[in-house]
Amino acid sequence: MRYPNKFDIARLVAVGTPPHLEVTEAQQRYAAGNSLHVVPEGEPPAWFLLVAPDHHRFSVTFYAPTGTPLRDATWERDGDGLLCRRLIDLFYPDGDPGRRVPFSQVFSVTHEIGADGIVRSVLSSPIEHDTVVEGAVDLAHVRTALPPFGEWDGVVAPSAPGESERFGLDAIDAALAAVEAYASGEVPTDGGWRIAGGSRDIMDAVDLLVAAGSPVTAVPVIERGAAQIIPLAVQAPPSSGRDPREERRRITALHDDVRDACEHREGQAIGLDLAATGTDAAAVYAHALRGAGATAAEYWAFGGRHALVLVTTGDAADGDLSLSLQVVPPAWAGIGGAAAPAADDLRWSISDIGTDPAGYA
Fold first, then answer.
1. How many CB atoms lie within 10 A of CB 310?
2. 355: how many CB neighbours lie within 10 A of its CB?
3. Residues linked to residue 50 through DSSP beta bridges, in sequence order
């Protein structure tokens, strides 16, 4: 086993002066709760383990013999041990690139695992809309003990990818199988809802909404006057058996994904002043958002004639956390432009979504 001073994830080589730590120094760093890099013997290494400060996260990346990444596994502290929070498997239909390439060029299957045993699996590809599957997993299969120094196999072994085709056209079928295979149990469905698409599907829907007359079928849309609301998530109440803390974590992750997609298109988000008062369009919109229970909102100018507003309402502790993306006249966000009808009632609920299949309970 070797302990790089630093590790270049592009070239898969140790760097720094000296490039590797002595075992005694590495052991001291680990005992002190400092970050640590670990790789096995071999060029390139079969895997790379990054231990975060205070041992709060262990991240393992596995590589093909050519150096192409195959899987990322992330373990986080959970009580006295570790819980596998995320697995990302990569598939390369165009063949083995022999290096790290952007996610947009590959098929990826991401499994997000909650401490309540609920797993959300997403297949993303450059040619199709995201495929989303939600299920449950036995937590005994995704927990492990905090490893003593040198006993890294306790984290590496349960993280290792299984045998599946990663390169060539057969990798597409392997990715499709992977998104369905990880979680097998039933999920509590009492009262919660989440959009089934990923951030790319959501932004595609926004493009259709701002193109007058274009029908949107991939995601549900709720109309409230001049506002078009794309519901993104509604927290399942505590009576559903879901952990409110995990519900907050899942909705926060979705919020961050959508915000990143909006920022990729339109730049950094701007916070919307929910406390604004007055009679102008922005103040009236803020008043309507407060009436709907909004606790946070941020916006982007979009295409010159619209604004996108990412709105969080409620609180996970109260069991009523929800998330939506709203397409509104730019004046409502204080951007200016043509006069617009005043915002009115912006409240919505699961009952407004109806039986639209573009989501799941």
1. 21
2. 5
3. 37, 59
Structural element, H or E, at residue 275: none
Q: How far is CA 184 from the centre of its chain?
A: 21
What is the residue whose two structure tokens read 């006295």? 80
Sequence length of the chain is: 361
**Nearest CA to 106 among 92, 117, 95?**
92
CA atoms of 115 and 243, how far apart (whole Å): 8
Other CB atoms within a 10 A radius of the CB of residue 210 amount to 16
- pLDDT of the chain, 361 residues: tens digit per residue: 999 999 999 999 999 999 999 999 999 999 999 999 999 999 999 999 999 999 999 999 999 999 999 999 999 999 999 999 999 999 999 999 999 998 778 999 999 999 988 888 989 888 887 888 888 888 999 999 999 999 999 999 999 998 889 999 999 999 999 988 876 656 655 668 888 878 888 998 899 888 875 677 778 899 999 999 999 999 988 777 778 888 899 999 999 999 999 999 999 999 999 999 998 899 999 999 999 999 999 999 998 889 999 999 999 888 899 999 999 999 999 987 566 777 789 999 888 886 443 454 4
List of long-range contacts for 156-159, beta carbons under 8 Å, 24+ apart: 156/47, 156/49, 156/60, 158/84, 159/60, 159/62, 159/71, 159/73, 159/75, 159/84, 159/87
Closest listed residue to residue 229, CA positions, set 343, 103, 316, 137: 343
Residue 192: helix, strand or coil by DSSP?
coil
AA identity, residue 132:
V
Are 329 and 307 contacting, i.e. CB atoms less than 8 angstroms apart?
yes
Residue 267 Ramachandran class (φ > 0 left, ψ -120 to 50 alpha, else beta): left
CA 67 to CA 145: how far, in whole Å? 29
Question: In the beta sheet, which residues pair with residue 231?
Answer: 324
